[in-house]
Amino acid sequence: MASRVLSTTLVTPPCSTALNKSRILAKKNKSRIKPSTNSEKQFLCSSSSASDSGVRNGKIKSKAVSESSQGSIDRTVYQGAFGPWTVDPEDVREVVLYRSGLVTCASSFVIAASAAYLPENFASKEIIEQNLDLFYLIGAGGLGLSLYLIHIYVTEIKRTLQALWVLGGVGSLATYVALAQPAGDHLVHYVLYNPMAVWFVGPFFAALTGLVFKEGLCYGKLEAGILTFVIPTLLLGHLDDIGDKSVFMFNSLPEDEKKALIEKLEQQKLQSDSQEVTFQ
Description:
The protein is mainly alpha-helical.
C-alpha cells in the first residue's frame, strides 16, 4: 500500500508533461501577437487587405517580405477577427493609390471652384473657366480610383457606391452629348445654368458623399462629417429654383382661354419680328 502511494506522488504521468509543454508554447506564441489598436482598425477601414499567414508547428508564420523591399513596412503580426494578418507591400500600394485618388478629386474641385473667387482680370481665371470640363473629368477619375480601392466590410455598400459612380459617368456623358454640346456649351456651364441637369450628374456626388461618410466614420474627422451634409445640401439647393410660375397659371386656365392666350402671344411675336425687319 505504501509503495502504491509513493509511486503516485513521485511519478508524473507523460500526458501531464506534454500538456504543460503545450501550454507554455501557447503562452509564448500568444505574447508574440500584438493586439489591434484603434489606429490599426482605421488602417483596415481605409483600403488595406489582410495578408496571408499560417500556423505551423505551433508558431505563427507571416508572409515573407524581402529585406530590399521591406523599407519601413510594419511586419508586426496583428490578431484579426478571423486570424492573424500582416501588412505587405501590396497593402501599402493600395493605400497610396487610394489616397492619391482622394487628393486628385479634392484638388480638381478646389481649383475649379477657385474661378468663382478670382478677380476678373486675373489670367488664371480664364484658363480655369475654359478647362472646367477637364477638371471635372480628372476629379471623377480620382474618385473612381478611390472607390475601386476602398475597403468597406459590407460588400453591398461598396458595390452601391461604385454603381453610383458609373451612373454619374453615364449621366454626365449623356448630358454633354445630348444637351450641352448641341447648345454650344460646356458640361459644367450647362449644369450650372440648367439646375435640372443635376439629376444626371448627381450620382457622382452621391458616391462622393458615401465616401466622405465612410472616412468620417473610420477616422472620426469632423471635416468629413461636415462634407457628408454639405454636398447634398449644395446639390439640392441648386435644384431649388423658383421656375416659371406662368406655366402653372396657364395650365389652370380653361381650354378656350388657353387658345385665346396662345393666339395673342403668337400675334405679339409676329409684330415684334416685323418691327425688327423694319429697323434692319
